[in-house]
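For this section, I looked closely at a protein sequence along with its fold in token form, which I now present.
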Amino acid sequence: MKKKILIIGLGITGISCVNFLLKKKIIPSVMDKCINPKLIEKIPSYIPCHLGSYKKDWILNSNLIILSPGISIFNNFLLEAQQKGIEIIGDIELFARYNTTPVIAITGTNGKSTVTNMISKIMKKNNFNISIGGNIGYPVLDLLSFTKDFYILEISSFQLETIKQLNIYIAVILNISQDHMDRYPLGIKQYRNFKLRIYKHSSICIYNSDDKLCYPHYFSPKKKYITFGKVSGKYKLCYYKNNIYLQINNKKILNFNKTKLIGIHNYVNALAVLAVTDTLKISKKISLQEITNYLNMNHILQIIHVENGVTWINDSKSTNINSTKAALKYLDKKKIWLLLGGYDKNCELYLLKKYLQKRDNINIYCFGISSKKILSIYPKAILVKTIYQGIKKIIKLVKFGDFVLLSPACSSIDQFKNFKHRGNEFIRLVKKFHNIE
């Protein structure tokens, strides 16, 4: 019997799935609830296509459903399909069924992109032939076109929902805290369980020993486990004479105060990076040199303008509470004008309350769908409709030594395409207000 394959979601991932199957001479059906997906012109006209809704009979008459990560497996039609025994996978699982190249996979609530980027720079410096994919870089199926020594995958919880047999050489979990609670009806335990699936078919598990949520459900004698953490683990931080060191097995090997890294959270990210590169037997000299010179990626504590002693920082990639806390800790004793808001993903924003109340040096301007929640936990916040209005008010009040920080603690999808769009708009507006071309 010919297999009926249905691809749901026609974003970049969905299109990569279509192209991959067509190369295999398999013609799938495609579906998207959007009436006019942006990439629809990339779908050949001979492919059966349903747009504008989820077509129940197509779903229930499929043999295999390939789901884009933006679509929840808890959709009622998909739950019915699962009960009927229809297999549902994502592009990562499809990739796994064809891949023969070793994989380094990284997940966590915060820091995934930074760690993936740092590891790739070190490996390239050491002449490894690599490609990056998954949540950043290429769609994973596109990687199969390249002959490489390693694939480095950044993997989100959404992508982990549908994996079954992804063989991973090194699996890393950086941290786990509240995020995407709108996606997980059973809360953080359910979110955590999906994150921990990264360990299932891995040979080496690297995890944050300070974060109990990162611990595997059970420890297999067939796997190797390596730990890192701010205060515990094989790789940890050491505080000595007003300096912070990277320490391995109680030996200080790098003074973080002499690096370009910004924030304690990035020091901890560097621990995870070194745990990976040491496992690959890369020269410590090369690894430490790259870590020392590493500069933050765009939209992560990115200093975009300094004028009259006022520093403007774009931290648009902070889409959850812990990420914003990390930014505020980095600016611990500074006077901060904080732009906070967006779509909160049903995360418990009230967890910020105690933290903000302890700080009398923060002025908050809230925007977006979550504004009412922010005002309920921090009544002193100023309500603005847009980032533009926030900047317009703030620029009249800032003084020498102040910091203006866009670190929203929320997703951007209520007012922007994504965090990059939000960050770029912030940069554009800051330059406009300062008459910079």
Observations:
- The CA atoms of residues 353 and 377 lie 6 Å apart.
- Residues 264-279 form the longest helix (16 residues).
